[in-house]
From TrEMBL:
Taxonomic lineage from the root: Bacteria, Pseudomonadati, Bacteroidota, Sphingobacteriia, Sphingobacteriales
Protein's UniProt name: Uncharacterized protein
Species of the source: Sphingobacterium corticibacterium
InterPro entries listed in its UniProt record: Bact_RF_family3 (IPR041289)
Length: 381
């Protein structure tokens, strides 16, 4: 008997996708359902799950899938597990194999899906994966510096006080010039005095920002594939960017006073930033597709797409959100066939193959797709 292993997750990462797509040629059950965070709406979630469980079990029994029946039976105890349903997020995904069972709480609503096959249904996870983004946020002001780690759904403040100076006075101490200790210029100093003050302030800011930058590099090394978002006033923003040794800044920043916003408001601002980045990437993707057409480096027809995927030609596979095509890919015959007794989906199999070959999978909404076939590709050759 395999165990129920529950993973409470909001970020669908590359490691998880690799684990799930690697499982194949063995009995697998996938269940997706929307859930609710609060009472009384979440009281309906066990009922929804019970109906999906019964529907899946009935399908398994009708098709004589005895190995799958052994897999699904341990899930029955979840129906009356009040503690389990009291901790819902927006969605739930359950993956059952001979090895174990993974239960993922998802941060967004998903369609109801039940899949009985010899691999997992992973399509819905790719939308969550690509539309989310882990990042660090540096909230920078002269008298308050904060570092956060976050994604689309949450923002976590890091405790940096022992490692990073959080004010200019703390960072520079006795090195701080008189013009920053005393904000006003001596009366009668004139233009010359003003220029000295301005130059000294720039020198102080330079020293302060360099100390912050170096401390973060030393104590909080950020992976190169994780962007650093800077939230600062415009004049501080340009100054910090000029002296920083970080090479993974986000292409879009928040030119604001971060002290004026709560953590919730900061998260909303960042969500706006990444939504703009996502829309820009989608636009660039569709432009690449248009350029690929006259070069015969793209496919729309499901048969052509299937053969290109089998041949390892596909660099980017774009699929329509929620679209399914019933069938199974016979790799040896290079055709789509029906597989008796199993709920196989051609698009899901294409997703798994492209991902395992090192390609990218992008999920677009129906109105964003250039055709009604549900798929298109950008090919390597």
């Amino acid at each position: 008997m395999h165990s129920l292993k529950t993973s409470i997750m909001q970020t669908i990462d590359l490691k998880l996708l690799k684990e799930l797509t690697a499982i194949q040629d063995t009995p697998c059950i996938s269940i997706y359902m929307p859930t609710h965070r609060v009472h009384p709406a979440n009281a309906t979630d066990p009922i929804t799950f019970k109906n999906l469980y019964k529907k899946t079990l009935q399908y398994i029994q009708n098709n004589g899938l005895h190995e799958h029946e052994k897999l699904i039976q341990p899930l029955e105890k979840l129906i009356n597990d009040k503690t389990f349903w009291d901790h819902n997020d927006e969605g739930l995904a359950i993956f059952v194999s001979l090895e174990d069972t993974q239960i993922l709480r998802l941060p967004e609503k998903v369609q109801e899906i039940t899949c009985v096959a010899d691999s997992f249904c992973v399509k819905p996870l790719f939308k969550l994966y690509h539309e989310n983004q882990s990042y660090y946020l540096l909230a920078l002001a002269l008298d308050d510096v904060q570092l956060y780690r976050g994604d689309k759904y949450q923002l976590q403040k890091l405790d940096i006080e022992d490692n990073v100076p959080t004010t200019m006075k703390e960072a520079l101490g006795e090195e701080l010039t008189d013009n920053h200790l005393h904000a006003s210029v001596v009366q009668g100093a004139g233009l010359h005095g003003y220029m000295e003050k301005s130059q000294e302030e720039d020198i102080d800011m330079d020293r302060f920002f360099r100390k912050i930058d170096q401390a973060i590099l030393e104590h909080y090394p950020i992976p190169q594939d994780v962007p650093l978002v800077l939230a600062a006033l415009p004049e501080h923003h340009s100054h910090f960017m000029r002296i920083s040794k970080h090479h993974n800044f986000s292409p879009i920043h928040l030119q604001i006073n971060p002290q004026s916003l709560s953590k919730t408001a900061l998260l909303e601002k960042i969500q706006d930033v990444f939504n703009k980045i996502l829309e820009k990437r989608k636009k660039e993707l569709l432009e690449r597709y248009q350029l690929a057409i006259p070069e015969n480096l793209s496919s729309l027809d499901i048969g052509d797409v299937t053969r290109d995927v089998i041949d390892g030609k596909v660099e980017v596979l774009c699929i329509e959100n929620g679209k399914s095509i019933e069938g199974h890919i016979d790799v040896d015959e290079r055709i789509i066939v029906q597989k008796d007794g199993q709920q196989t989906d051609v698009i899901n199999e294409l997703v798994r193959m492209v991902f395992s070959y090192g390609g990218s999978v992008i999920v677009l909404d129906e109105e964003e797709m250039p055709s009604e076939t549900g798929v298109f590709t950008i090919n390597r050759y």
